[in-house]
Write a structure and sequence with these properties.
25 strands; globular; alpha/beta; 21 helices; NADPH-cytochrome p450 Reductase, Chain A, domain 3; 3 domains
Length: 702
């Protein structure tokens, strides 16, 4: 419902995984304490708001996908405002403030927010509050919290200006001059390398949405011998501070158990991105030796009887379940072990104070409790501060309650980052650490995000292997630590490894009558096409591939596809191909070595140059060989520069963002600078032009 009061402002959010929505809801909750009312909508609900006629200030919270695009929920909105026929004063009446969410581990940091911000400016919209860019790499709250704190004064100034403008009907310049100088002094909260200098001002308990918890209100047990903070223990000054903690999120979900047996929804109903396919796993190969640091597996899926289509370079998503033993453990802690097969009916709680409350889209209206916890909720998610705040109310022990308050407070921000965020703590870890905390099922549904499908790069060519789809992955390992009592495997990679174990270690039971391995194991997948990370359209164009570790995955598909094209079109001209691959040990984790892929590609001319590095192997050579792909690139500087500049070739990078892709980018800048005899700034501009032309392409992850 729109608010008729002049204290209204429009609040829009565009979310991919729920972060932006959660922050928008926090703004909505705090607004009332400031005498304001937020008219909140998802940016996709364009029938519920109209920026063309909007008179009140607009606040936008928008995330960014890993590829740098706006989230799916913002696609229609972005397409609409990108209309080139719109005049430059289309939004001249609009006042807005924008908070962008991103992750600096990825190339296009906050590009979703930047794209919308830039386009609104081009169409004449004006900032009433400067843009905030929050970085999930180091903690969104470092920018989000102070940005929200400063929002209220800016909103009141903008609303006051609007009121004066309407009442006096005076000239725009005269009205503008009345705007408080303080409004113009709010600097863009763009998280940079100086983030450690960001001071969060303790504002006490001046707002009703912030609760002050004093030490004398609780019986806090603090062993004198503990001088270091931990997940469950704090030290001064946090342990002695009055705390500013978030407002308690309103409850809005109600669950009812039914003893009757019922049918669970199909997995496809959990996905809104497109058509799903249930396909058998036909083959599994371990590509690494048992003593390798990481275990890499190659899986081959049978897609022959489906309409699944892909190109080399595309990705696809695997719908995966939570670990069954972790779900059992959670059921035990919740006291619901005996009800796992009971039907759960989920609906919105009557009389809830939550704005626009509705059952989350990823939660079925009716399903068994087991299905809900295994397939719908991300129980491994790092708990957000709003969740910690809600868990406080479910905790009976005074010391545990105080520590949870500290972890979600302004004063405990560094402890939250260190012991929750950076330690990858999940709900189960918290429940073990704070045993008096007994949350309800409805609270978990309210605060745990959707169990996301996991994305993998295709490692095959449908032209080379019709009806087959291959992919490669490392089995992710999370070691035990101070905040995690037991080691864990990745949600999806651990499940896949367990699923294909019979194919990796066949027994008599897995062999068919011909002595071949048979498998009835199936997984559910759906396509996730990549718009750019594909082979050059012109086969005569040369290209360079850099893919250490499992980053080699898409390039196997590239080379398979190129081999088949060469066989089918012997009269075509094909450009040279370079592959830079790296791993730790030549004899332990040299992927695809045992299947002789690279040797075959070299022998038949599909691969022109192969450069391989081994970072952990010692060498007795007089000149030590390069240990990393970026070093190998520098040794081939002249050839690399020729391919990129003279031959107008393509450059592909796939793999780890933090420890590889950035170093490769730096190496290319150095190469361009040296070979062009230009300064580093000029070389960076050339690299930016290559990116813009889609000739320097990345498929990276953190």
């Amino acid at each position: 419902m729109c608010c008729e009061s002049k204290r209204r402002f429009l609040l829009l959010y565009a979310t991919q995984k729920g972060q932006a929505k959660a922050i928008a809801e926090e703004i909505w909750q705090q607004a009332g304490a400031h005498g304001l009312e937020a008219d909140m909508h998802c940016i996709s609900e364009m029938d519920k708001y109209n920026l063309e006629t909007e008179k009140d200030p607009v606040v936008i919270v928008i995330s960014t996908t890993g590829t740098g695009d706006p989230p799916d929920t913002a696609r229609k909105f972005v397409k609409k405002i990108q209309d080139k026929t719109l005049p430059p004063d289309h939004f001249a009446h609009l006042q807005y403030g924008l908070l962008g969410l991103g992750d600096s581990e990825y190339m296009f940091f906050c590009n979703g927010g930047r794209t919308v911000d830039r386009r609104l400016q081009e169409l004449g919209a004006q900032h009433f509050y400067d843009t905030g860019l929050a970085d999930d790499c180091v903690g969104l709250e470092l920018v989000v919290d102070p940005w929200i704190d400063g929002l209220w004064l800016a909103l009141k100034e903008a609303l006051q200006l609007q009121k004066e403008k309407e009442g006096m009907n005076s000239a725009v310049d005269a009205v503008s001059s009345s705007l408080s100088p303080a409004l113009h002094n709010v600097h863009e909260l763009n998280l940079s390398s100086e983030v450690q200098n960001l001071k969060l001002e303790d504002e006490g308990a001046r707002d009703s949405d912030v609760l002050s918890q004093k030490l004398d209100d609780i019986n806090l047990v603090s062993p004198a011998r503990d001088t270091e903070p931990s997940l469950v223990h704090s030290v001064p000054p946090v342990s002695q501070s009055a705390l500013n903690i978030p407002a308690l999120p309103p409850e809005y979900i109600e669950v009812q158990f039914q003893d009757a047996q019922g049918k669970n929804p199909h997995l496809s109903s959990l996905i809104s991105e497109g058509t799903t396919f249930e396909v058998p796993v036909r083959k599994a190969v371990q590509l690494t030796r048992e003593d390798a640091i990481k275990t890499a597996l190659l899986l081959e899926l049978d897609i022959a009887d489906t309409a699944f289509e892909y190109q080399p370079g595309d990705a696809f998503c695997v719908i995966c379940p939570n670990n069954v033993s972790e779900v059992e453990e959670l059921l035990h802690i919740l006291g619901l072990s005996g009800r796992r097969d009971d039907l759960v009916c989920v609906k919105v709680k009557q009389g809830t104070k939550k704005k626009g409350a509705s059952r989350p889209q990823h939660i079925p209206e009716r399903s068994t409790l087991n299905f809900l916890l295994i397939w719908c909720l991300e129980i491994r998610a790092i708990p957000k501060k709003a969740f910690l705040r809600a868990l406080v109310e479910c905790t009976s022990d005074a010391g545990e309650k105080r520590r949870l308050q500290e972890l979600c407070s302004r004063q405990g921000a560094s402890d939250y980052t260190r012991f929750i965020r950076d330690s990858n703590v999940c709900l189960l870890d918290l429940l073990h650490a704070f045993p008096s905390c007994k949350p309800s099922l409805s609270l978990l549904i309210e605060h745990l995000p959707k169990l996301q499908a996991r994305s993998y790069s295709v490692s095959s060519s449908n032209l080379y292997q019709p009806g087959r789809l291959c992919f490669v992955f490392n089995v992710v390992e999370f070691p035990a630590g101070p905040c995690r009592p037991l080691s864990r495997k990745g949600v999806c990679t651990g499940w896949l490894a367990e699923l294909v174990a019979p194919l990796l270690h066949p027994s008599k039971n897995t062999l068919d009558t011909k002595g071949e391995i048979s498998s009835t194991k199936k997984i559910t997948i759906y396509p996730r096409p990549n718009n750019a990370f594909h082979l050059p359209a012109d086969p005569s164009v040369p290209f360079i591939m850099v893919g250490p570790g499992t980053g080699i995955s898409p390039f196997i598909g590239f080379l398979q596809h190129r081999q088949k094209l060469r066989e089918q079109h012997p009269d075509w001209k094909f450009g040279e191909t370079w592959l830079f691959f790296g791993c730790r040990h030549k004899d332990r984790d040299y992927l695809f070595k045992q299947v002789h892929y690279f040797t075959c590609f070299l022998e038949n001319g599909v691969l022109t140059h192969l450069k391989v590095c081994f970072s952990r192997d010692s060498s007795t050579a007089e000149v030590a060989p390069p240990k990393y792909v970026q070093e190998a690139l520098r040794l081939c500087a002249k050839e690399v520069a020729r391919v990129l500049l003279k031959d107008r070739g393509y450059f592909y990078v796939c793999g780890d963002k933090k420890h590889m892709a950035d170093d490769v980018s730096d190496a290319i800048v150095d190469i361009l600078s040296m070979e062009m005899e230009a300064d580093r700034l000029e070389a960076m501009k050339i690299l930016a032009m290559l990116r813009e032309a889609k000739r320097y392409l990345q498929d990276v992850w953190s």
